[in-house]
Amino acid sequence: MTAVTEIEAAPRDRLSRARSLHWVLAGALGLACIASLQIGATGVTLSAMLAKLGQGEALSQMERVVLLDIRLPRLAMCVLVGAALAVSGAAMQGLFRNPLADPGIVGVGAGAGLGAILAIVLGAVLPAWIIDLTGNQMVPFAAFLGGWGSTILLYRLSTRHGRTSVATMLLAGIAIGALAGAVSGILVYIADDRQLRDLTFWGLGSLAGASWAKVLSAGPLILLSVAAALRLGRALNGLALGEATAVHIGIDVQRMKSLAILAVAGATGAAVAVSGGIGFIGIVVPHLLRLASGPDHRTLLFNSALLGAVLLILADVIARVVIAPAELPIGIVTAVLGAPVFLWILLRRRGLVEL
Fold first, then answer.
1. How far apart are CA 229 and CA 221, in angstroms?
2. Inter-residue long-range contacts of 14-19, CB under 8 Å, 24+ positions, other chains counted
3. With a cut of 70, which residues of the chain have pLDDT below it?
């Protein structure tokens, strides 16, 4: 038995349970999708529309708009963003070998937030051709550029002589996040009342503006980034045994670090760009799955994508109905649900807090 199989050679029942969990989560995702299409503030339900179609009746204009232009793109956005944040969290925790790591640790969220704030506060002074070119996508596009810019800066700061230091990356990420937060604070201070309202809603996170245009703009990058992260399972298992051991068993550690950073940056940057700030998905989902089926990243990453999508869909449904016909920002819902779970995880793992 080689060293890398120390993690992969977990008890057979645990590996079998992790693979069985694929199907359980896939079923849960299907049910969550039905709930998302069924429930809403308008009173239009999926079951009623299916009944009409079954009787040969045509859907009304309102029913077509609600189903095809509002709920379906919103559901697609939930699946993409939830999977992106959860897989990014699992990859970051494996890369840093720290179960308390989060996608925000690399400064992607702070950089994306700064880009969005710049677009909201200073967008009016941009040249007309830029405003015409980006249209309604100016804030998401600026958030994406901010996330990628912070990632490139982080990578350059933490890489020397072709080798990336995880410790330097952690410290540089904290510094970049603090700097982005300071600049964001200055911009918030000079913003007017309308801009402050836009900043508040964007920062709390929302999928209310989901559209097929946003799905098509963020979807390909999220899917590509998540697919790249899913290929890191065996390498992250080897890294858990230490970098020296991982190198000895044939893992290209530097290539794996670079791929992980780029995958997390692409997935998180695109997700934050179209949804705003949504917390706790990236840190809570991998923890719950480790408790349920163990730390094997070969199954953990895929299950994280499924569970992240399920939880964000359910949070979105709650956000739509809890104060209907108004709507809560989804970031509030994930914080209310995620913070108690995170505290429970901390109490279970007090030893980590003392490090």
1. 12
2. 14/293, 14/294, 14/296, 15/294, 15/296, 15/299, 17/292, 17/293, 17/294, 18/293, 18/294, 18/296, 18/299, 18/300, 18/303, 19/299
3. 1-15, 105-106, 124-137, 162, 164, 349-355
Rounded to 5 degrees, φ, ψ at 294 are 95, 175
What is the model's pTM? 0.84
Q: What does the block give as tokens for 12?
A: 């057979």
Write the CATH number of the domain with boundaries 5-52+59-349.
Answer: 1.10.3470.10
- Segment 337-345 long-range contacts (CB within 8 Å, at least 24 positions apart): 337/280, 337/311, 338/279, 338/280, 338/281, 338/283, 338/284, 339/280, 341/280, 341/284, 341/287, 341/288, 342/280, 342/283, 342/284, 342/287, 345/284, 345/287
pLDDT at residue 355, rounded to an integer: 41
Burial class (CB within 10 angstroms; exposed 0-12, middle 13-18, buried 19+) of 201: middle
Say if residue 286 is preceded by a cis peptide, omega within 30 of 0: no
